[in-house]
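#struct-pred

JT: dropping the chains for the assembly here, can someone run the whole complex?
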Amino acid sequence: QSALTQPASVSGSPGQSITISCTGASSDVGGYNYVSWYQQHPGKAPKLMIFDVSNRPSGVSDRFSGSKSGNTASLTISGLQAEDEADYYCSSYTSSNTYVFGTGTKVTVL
Amino acid sequence: QVQLVQSGAEVKMPGASVKVSCKASGHTFINYYMNWVRQAPGQGLEWMGIIDPSGGSTRSAQKFQGRVTMTRDTSTSTVYMELNSLRSEDTAVYYCARDGRGENWFDPWGQGTLVTVSS
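RK: done, full complex below.
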């Protein structure tokens, strides 16, 4: 199972919106609404930000939103803040009854 | 609150085995699956496998089949991940992460356990 494809880096100024893509195949992202997104600060464990494509867990800012079209899922961060600077990973359930993560995206707040 | 506490860092020789533990608290242990995810230095996340603490059934990524063993102890609400035939490429932080039955996401995560494979 190959990793889902994410851009290596995305940057934006405070207050701007950015979008991170996560591209897979019909056997994972495109076949199920089981895409989740994780934020990871350096030296820390990942934190769930979005589940089931577009749902936010309790306590996660509504500046974070998710969507999906075909084999590509997206995470949008609006009103970018300094604290959003981190690595972001997508994950998807697969037709092999396993999970696969994305390659990861480093978000930089300029 | 739900908490996953992992065992401490390990240093192993190539060819050896390592066993990492993950103790759960704050939820009914047998009601949630537990996953293992690893992250090599400077690299991304890699899903390794999952265990159902209720019956002990497991499944793993093809890459680790035959080399990883996941077990649980319901009396202490602890799951274990043992990786054998270690090589330098197995140097990584290993995380446990909970997911609910019928859910397909990971929350929360343990604090991570650094396993270093070096001669």
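JT: nice. The longest strand of chain B covers residues 92-100. Residues 78 and 103 of chain B are 21 Å apart (CA to CA).
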